[in-house]
Write a structure and sequence with these properties.
Length: 1077
């Protein structure tokens, strides 16, 4: 090496000077000077001094000279002459120093070379054989029309030499190079003579290439593969006959298969909704890859790095679950010499495809978000921003793709440094050096790999038991983890399990196929299993089936939503600590009840496992309990079945789903609050629980209703998948072919969901006709006339002593107004049943009440970790989490009654005052402000536009569409379907969501937003009237008062009551403070 360095240094001394500064020459030098970073070079030089094989003594003069040249600067290079020559010499010195890295001592690189001609400087990654977007597998990439080859580059520290290793015939593409651990052969994806993708292997001696996989089926393709230490292969394949649902299957989905070249046998490994990308063997023998999923997740941001054993067991998230940044992480590879860190290319959803920013991650630091990012290359001192953006890397330079870690500090990577640059091969490092090894006009390079022998990772023995059809699931303690944070032990009584059946190729499957604001996939009800008192549970599930879990309360309603799936391999024991627990947390060392018993069998749903369809599940409930009144006659909307519109939605479905609060197909990527979409947040459930015209549901009907709500209120529950004839498919009926392939390569676990629906329909028919039941009339209510002394009354203008301020932090204050003592008639006979009978209530002492609800800004002064986050957005294609709900002056939401009391306690300790929540009586007295009407400003039909923020005409702006969804035009054919939210359309209060309550008029006591904006916790237990604060035992629920911007006037009156669990954090509930003296 010493002779090579001396030769390089001599050649540097012969560098020319005095040449003309041509525009091209000057532009090249100026561009390269941008990457002359002396701090970075010094750090790399110091690091390399500690590396075996680095000749620091020989290179020190070059380093000294470079330091001097950099110190003198490069002013005047535009004039040519000595300044330009000095700049060029500095760049050459940099090149010599950094390319002397001993990690390059093998002096050979293998890469894919694409001849691009005049398009070379405009080309992006798809011109180098990648997919044309960030949501498809190789099957959607261009197949031919390339001039591509695999080349070996040598003489890396001088004038590079190129040698062809393999060049495919007929202009075929080359993709996804991987070097074997023996350093003698390369794997890649290319085309068979029949134009199907396959994995190939080419020895580096140039002796040709051979396919690695037998094409076992005429309609399957294989690509994006990796060797395993035991000689088997993992490849991605179209084996699932699945399509990307958000484009109605126009792009086929690839899942991973395991292939044994010796026996030429194959087994499907993953059963995932969407794409698997870039499988790579980790140091420990496990396989990391990227999985895209969006079962009710925001699909622009849901590409998660996974890791699994080679046989598919212990398949878990490695990084990115529950975070919106980054949108996509491609080309993941572990860092040599590091037990947990990996490199990856982050990119967006739309916009620039496949290339992007080069980041280093360490899941041991954190499993998601920027907390798990080690650094960005080449910006070690620039903090990585938690950026939520669809086109994440548009306008970002340099662009990187296909990194290959040489160590935990140095990397080969293909890069395009600026918009007008070429795709070249670069050596980059953690110190910010970017050093070109190869680029050439008219060409582009991708997937560079240093030719070297490396240690083969350990071979992990198979743990699957292919003679079994089930897997076992063990959960040590369902209450551990952030999924059930704040939920009291004993709440979860059972688990509901469902399996997904995914969209087909070129089949209508967009977000609105299964229902309005519903979901993407078929949800097959598998059954339920009881949870032990200590939170443990162990049970059997069907193997090779994507399964999702919903923990249920005593009523059979979901407490939390998994919004993902896991797949147990045959005979596998799938275990976890709790619900969305941090994977860096070790299992708890304790014996649990479930582990002392044999695994439980699921309690199957009555009538058998099947897809949840509205017509077969919910319609029978409506037929018995509802249609005697909701029969298409009179004012009650029609809930009869059998009527479909042109889009296939049923009349009864369209009429009832607006009264269900659900997350929709694209909910927040973060782990949801428990009870966020609990059935008790839906208007339909609330009115039924309060005795809606005495309608009585059976226990089974209640559970069906909850199941429907928990599944996002679906309608269809099926796909209409046609025979597909496009290449490479051979005209097979898709549904049958999926079953056949799953049976053949998935251990006999094919699902005939159509037959399941048919069988359940036959089961229902055998039960006989349903007779509609008209509810018994409620006994007449005779209002009891009650009078209160001095009430109603007109409030006299408040004096100067009627207001008080409490400082929370500099510039942040709470303003209270004095509420007088008095008596009034509490409740009403005009509202729902729980607002009667009325009673005379006396407020014995004056008290102070905050003029507005506690705001986000105010709450953060004592509870800085809370985030009210966002209001849900309808439709799909979300580029942000929703509508902002965490602005400083917006009222805080998603705080429980217990959270509110904690804030009261902290503030009381800070101020020395008795600060708490109002009772129901105090709240209603303050809200009425002397009035005896429905609202402080009038009766139910009063114009609330300037007074309160309720569900009004602006609620129609929730009907949105498009990328970064915007309000629909009323002429849109989808407008009638998405403007469904209940509202008072004849009033416009100017706000769609919660805002600063002072945007509206105060009531006569000086209180803002008592009826609207958000609802408010009280400290009263929810009990039947007549009202009393005396009780022998606490009730299950706490009372919430007031309406919100999502509720109509009839649910927002001075007497309207709602009830939630004290630990429940509700999307439209906050709190208002009082001071008692």
């Amino acid at each position: 090496m010493k002779n090579m360095l001396l030769t390089a240094l001599v050649s540097l001394s012969l560098s020319t000077s005095g040449q003309t500064a041509t525009p091209d020459r000057l532009a090249t030098v100026q561009s390269e000077l941008e990457w002359l970073n002396m701090d970075a070079i010094r750090l790399a030089f110091a690091d390399m001094k500690g590396m075996k094989g680095f000749d620091a003594a020989t290179l020190q003069p070059a380093m000294d000279e470079l330091e001097q040249l950099a110190k003198e600067g490069f002013a005047g290079i535009d004039k040519g002459g000595a300044a330009l020559a000095a700049a060029e010499r500095a760049l050459a010195l940099k090149q010599t120093i950094l390319l002397s890295n001993p990690l390059l001592n093998g002096d050979k690189i293998v890469a894919a070379r694409f001849i691009l001609g005049d398009n070379a400087r405009q080309a992006m990654a798809p011109e180098l054989g990648t997919q044309a977007n960030n949501w498809s597998n190789q099957e959607s990439a261009r197949r031919r029309g390339f001039d591509a080859e695999i080349v070996e580059l040598s003489n890396l520290r001088g004038k590079t030499s190129l040698r062809t290793v393999f060049k495919p015939a007929d202009s075929a593409s080359i993709a996804d190079l991987k070097l074997h651990w023996d350093g003698n052969r390369v794997m890649f994806t290319s085309l068979m003579p029949d134009n199907r993708w396959n994995l190939f292997e080419a020895p580096l001696d140039g002796s040709g290439a051979k396919p690695l996989m037998e094409m076992l089926e005429p309609d399957l393709e294989f690509y994006d593969g990796t060797w395993l230490p035991d000689g088997r292969l993992i490849a991605v394949s179209n084996i699932g006959y699945q399509g990307v649902p958000c484009v109605s299957g126009d792009d086929p989905v690839g899942n991973m298969v395991l292939y044994n070249p010796t026996g030429k046998n194959m087994r499907r490994l993953t059963f995932d909704q969407d794409a698997n990308w870039n499988p790579f063997v980790m140091h420990n023998g496990r396989v990391m890859y990227t999985r895209w999923e969006y079962t009710d997740l925001t699909h622009y941001y849901s590409r998660i790095v996974m890791h699994t054993n080679p046989d598919g067991t212990e398949n878990k998230a490695l990084f990115g679950s529950g975070s919106m940044f980054p949108n996509s992480t491609f080309d993941v590879q572990p860092l040599p010499g590091h037990s947990s860190a990996f490199a990856g290319i982050i990119s967006g959803h739309h916009g620039i495809a496949r290339s992007g920013r080069l980041l280093l991650f360490d899941p041991m630091k954190a499993r998601k978000g920027i907390a798990g990012v080690m650094q960005e290359i080449p910006y070690r001192n620039r903090p990585v921003e938690d950026l939520i953006k669809d086109e994440l890397v548009n306008g970002v330079w340099p662009q990187f793709i296909k990194p290959s870690p040489l160590s935990d500090k140095y990397f080969l990577v293909s890069a395009k440094l600026n918009e007008d640059d070429l795709w070249g091969i670069y050596l980059v490092d953690v110190y910010d050096n970017v050093t070109c090894l190869q680029k050439a006009e008219g060409e582009g390079y991708i997937s560079p790999l240093v030719v070297r022998k490396t240690t083969t990772p350990p071979a992990i023995p198979d743990r699957v038991k292919l003679n079994e059809k089930e897997a076992t699931v063990f959960i040590q303690d369902i209450y551990e983890g952030e999924g059930l944070r704040g939920v009291p032990r004993g709440t979860v009584k059972s688990l509901r399990l469902h399996a997904y059946e995914y969209a087909y190729v070129k089949t209508v499957s967009d977000h609105n196929w299964q229902g309005i604001q519903s979901g993407w996939d078929i949800k097959r009800i598998l059954g339920t299993v009881p949870v032990e008192n200590d939170g443990s549970v162990m049970f059997k599930i069907p193997a090779n089936t994507p399964v999702s879990i919903q923990p249920l309360d005593d009523d059979g309603a979901a407490v939390q939503w998994m919004r993902s799936w896991f797949t147990g391999q045959p005979g596998e024991i799938v275990s976890c600590v709790g619900c969305h627990e941090d994977q860096n947390r070790l299992p708890i060392p304790k014996r649990v009840a479930a582990s002392q018993k044999p695994p439980l069998k699921l309690t199957l749903p009555e009538g058998g496992i099947r897809s949840f369809t509205f017509d077969l599940e919910m319609q029978p409930v409506l037929d018995r309990a509802c249609i005697a009144c909701h029969n298409g006659e009179g004012r009650a909307f029609d809930l009869r079945g059998g009527q479909k519109d042109k889009r296939g939605y049923g009349t009864s479905y369209l009429n009832i789903h607006p009264y269900i609060h659900r997350q929709g197909p694209e909910a927040d990527m973060l782990v949801l609050q428990p009870y966020e979409y609990h059935a008790n947040t839906s208007e339909l459930v609330r009115i039924l629980k309060k005795g809606h015209y005495n309608v009585q549901l059976t226990g089974k009907e209640w559970k069906t209703l909850y199941n429907w709500i928990d599944y996002n209120a679906p309608d269809k529950g099926f796909f209409q998948a046609d025979t597909i004839t496009s290449f490479p498919y051979k005209g097979y009926p898709q549904i049958d072919r999926r079953i056949e392939l799953t049976n053949k390569y998935g251990n006999g676990m094919g699902v005939d969901w159509k037959q399941e629906i048919t069988d359940y329909a036959a089961y229902l028919k055998a039960q006989g006709n349903i007779t509609p039941v008209r509810p018994e009339p409620l006994p007449p209510v005779t209002p009891k006339e009650i009078k209160a002394k001095g009430w109603p009354f007109n409030v006299v203008a408040a004096g100067k002593d009627s207001r008080m301020e409490v400082e929370l932090a500099p510039g942040i204050k709470l303003t209270f107004v004095r509420i007088p003592a008095g008596e009034f008639v509490m409740g009403s006979y005009k509202g729902e049943a729980d607002a009667r009978p009325t009673s005379k209530v006396k407020i014995n002492k004056p008290f102070w009440m905050a003029e507005v609800e506690v705001t986000n800004e105010q709450y953060a002064t004592l509870c800085p970790d809370h985030n009210s986050r966002y209001v849900d957005q309808l439709w799909k294609d979300h580029t942000r989490p929703g509508y902002v709900a965490n602005a400083p002056l917006q009222p805080v939401i998603r705080v429980s009654y217990e959270d509110a009391l904690t804030y009261c306690r902290l503030l009381s300790e800070k101020t020395g005052r008795h600060i708490t929540l109002p009772t129901e009586a105090q709240w209603e007295w303050a809200c009425r402000a002397g009035s005896d009407t429905d609202f402080w400003f009038g009766n139910l039909n009063a114009d609330f536009g300037s007074k309160e923020n309720l569900a009004d005409a602006s609620t129609t702006d929730f009907a949105v569409s498009g990328i970064d969804p915007q309000p629909m035009k009323k002429e849109s054919s989808w407008y009638p379907y998405y403007s469904y939210l209940p509202k008072s359309a004849d009033v416009n209060d100017g706000n769609m969501i919660q805002t600063d309550s002072k945007s509206y008029e105060a009531n006569p006591f000086g209180l803002y937003g008592m009826h609207g904006n958000i609802a408010e916790w009280t400290r009263s237990d929810y009990r039947p009237y007549p009202y009393t604060e005396k009780a022998s035992a606490p009730a299950a629920y706490k009372v919430v008062r007031g309406g919100s911007c999502f509720e109509r006037p009839k649910f927002s009156t001075a007497y309207a009551r709602k009830a939630y669990y004290p630990w429940q954090r509700v999307f439209n509930v906050g709190f208002r403070l009082i001071i008692e003296e």
